[in-house]
Design brief:
44% of the residues lie in helices and 11% in strands. It is an alpha/beta fold.
C-alpha cells in the first residue's frame, strides 16, 4: 500500500481552507486551475506509459477535483478513517485522472505517478484498493461501481454514520443493466446518503452513446427509479459544488454532469478517437500550453 505525502496533504488542507473562505469567483478560479494542473499531470502520465484513457480523464477531472478539493470528508493521512465519505470511481478506466487527483491531495507521493501502468506498479490501468489509498473499491468492469456504492450507503445507514457516498459513472456505462438494478434498490431504500454523478460526455469507445444505445431522456429514467435529479454543466465548478453540497431530501440524488470528452485540449474535445488514443510528445506540449492559460 502506498503511503501519504505529508507535505502535499498539508498543502491540500491549506487549499481547502482558502477555498472555503474565498469569494465565489475566486473559488471557481482556484478549482479551475487545480483541475487543469491535474490534466497536465495526467497527460504526462499517459505519454510516459504509452497507454491510458485520456479523453475520459479530461472530461471527469472537474468532477473529481471538486469532490476531493471542496466536498469529501476525507483525510489523506488517515485513508481508513471509519467515518470518511466514500468516493467510488465506477468508470475505472479513467484511473489516471483519479491518481493525479489523489496525489495532488497527498494520498501518496507525486513520484509514484511516474510508474503509472508500469510492471509491478501500484498504479494499474484500473484502480486497486489494496494498493492505492483513497481507492474504495476495485473498478474496471463497467456497471459494478453503483451496486458497490449502494452497499456502502446501506452499511453507512446501518452504522448510524453521517458519511456520504459518491459514485462517478460514465454515461456509456449506463448501458449495463446492473446499474438499473442498483438504482432501483437505492430508490426503494431511499438512500439519501448516496449521490451518483454521471460524466455525461456523450461519447463511448468507438461511437456516440445515442448512436450505440440511446440514454435520453436520462433525467426521467433516474426519476422513475425514485431518485432526485439535478442537471449541471460538468465543467462549472460552482455548479458542481452546489449540486454536491445541497441539502438532501429523503431520496438518493443523481447529478447529471454535462461534460466534453477531452475537455481543455482543443484537438481532443468531443473527438471519439481520443477515448484511448495516446498523444505524441508534441501534442502533450501543445495541450500543456493550452491548459496553462
Amino acid at each position: 500500500m502506498l503511503v501519504a505525502d505529508s507535505s502535499a496533504a498539508a498543502d491540500w488542507r491549506r487549499f481547502r481552507k482558502e477555498l472555503a473562505d474565498a469569494e465565489p469567483e475566486h473559488r471557481r478560479e482556484m478549482l479551475r486551475r487545480r483541475a487543469n494542473q491535474s490534466r497536465t499531470t495526467d497527460l504526462a502520465m499517459i505519454g510516459r506509459a504509452g497507454l491510458g484513457h485520456v479523453g475520459g480523464d479530461m472530461s471527469v477531472l472537474d468532477i473529481l477535483t471538486t469532490l476531493f478539493f471542496a466536498v469529501l470528508r476525507v483525510d489523506p493521512e488517515r485513508p481508513d478513517w471509519a467515518d470518511r465519505d466514500r468516493l467510488v470511481l465506477s468508470k475505472g478506466h479513467t484511473a489516471g485522472a483519479l491518481y493525479a487527483t489523489l496525489s495532488a491531495a497527498g494520498f501518496f507521493g507525486a513520484e509514484e505517478l511516474e510508474t503509472f501502468a508500469a510492471p509491478y506498479s501500484a498504479l494499474n490501468g484500473h484502480p486497486n484498493r489494496v494498493k492505492v489509498p483513497g481507492v474504495e473499491t476495485n473498478t474496471g468492469p463497467l456497471g459494478h461501481g453503483l451496486p458497490v456504492a449502494v452497499g456502502m450507503a446501506v452499511a453507512g445507514r446501518l452504522a448510524g454514520s453521517a458519511r456520504q457516498v459518491f459514485v462517478v459513472l460514465g454515461d456509456g456505462e449506463l448501458q449495463e443493466g446492473s446499474n438499473w438494478e442498483a438504482a432501483m434498490t437505492a430508490g426503494h431504500r431511499r438512500l439519501s446518503n448516496l449521490t451518483a454523478v454521471i460524466d455525461r460526455n456523450r461519447l463511448q469507445q468507438g461511437a456516440r452513446t445515442e448512436d450505440t444505445s440511446a440514454l435520453d431522456p436520462l433525467d426521467d429514467k433516474w426519476r422513475s427509479f425514485g431518485w432526485d435529479v439535478v442537471t449541471v454543466d460538468g465543467h462549472d465548478h460552482l455548479a458542481l459544488l452546489e449540486a454536491f453540497t445541497a441539502t438532501r431530501g429523503d431520496r438518493p440524488t443523481c447529478v447529471i454532469a454535462n461534460t466534453i470528452k477531452g475537455r481543455g485540449v482543443s484537438f481532443m474535445e468531443d473527438r471519439v478517437e481520443w477515448h484511448h488514443k495516446v498523444p505524441t510528445a508534441e501534442q502533450i506540449s501543445t495541450a500543456a500550453a493550452e491548459l496553462a492559460r
